[in-house]
Design goal:
It is a single chain. The protein has strands at about 10-15, 30, 40, 55-65, 70-75, 100-110, 120-125. It is mostly beta strands and about 130 residues long. The chain folds into two domains: about 10-75, Sandwich (Immunoglobulin-like), CATH 2.60.40.60; about 90-125, no CATH class. The strands form three sheets. The chain has a three-stranded antiparallel beta sheet, with no helix packed on it. Strands 2-3 form a two-stranded antiparallel sheet. The two termini are about 55 Å apart. This is Cadherin domain-containing protein. One of its GO terms (biological process) is homophilic cell adhesion via plasma membrane adhesion molecules. It comes from Dreissena polymorpha. Keywords: Calcium.
Length: about 130
């Protein structure tokens, strides 16, 4: 956050102020360098443990040498990524040397006819 028309030494400090709605306030996850304005995460952000709030807001304030303040809001959307390895839910399948039955269902629907036909087949596979 820097205005190229103004020399860098005119900005006295950068800071994060409390966002109006506290549940979206991102200050618990992010910090700002008061002299450079660089924003960095404080710790790892885990989508799965954030609860219902999947986006955060940062109210960024710049203060010049005369004490004049200007602020903007940065909206951050937390995206989910597959960060957990796959695992079997059935206990006998936990051991890689154990063979267990996994039932697969395949369905085909022909949408070209008024009357839809649904055929389901099952197969077993090894884990």
């Amino acid at each position: 956050m820097r205005d190229l028309d103004i020399p860098a030494d005119v900005i006295k400090e950068f800071r994060l102020d409390q966002y109006l709605i506290s549940q979206y306030d991102g200050r618990r996850y992010y910090a700002i360098n008061s002299s450079t304005g660089v924003i960095e995460s404080r710790n790892t952000i885990d989508y799965d443990t954030m609860g219902r709030t999947k986006f955060l807001m940062l109210k960024i304030v710049a203060v010049d040498v005369d004490g004049q303040k200007e602020s903007t809001t940065l909206n951050i959307t937390i995206m989910d990524v597959d960060d957990l390895p796959p695992r079997f839910l059935r206990k006998p399948c936990d051991d890689v040397t154990t063979t267990c039955d996994v039932t697969l269902y395949a369905a085909e629907i022909d949408r070209h006819f008024q009357m839809m036909e649904l055929s389901i087949s099952t197969t077993s596979q090894e884990c």
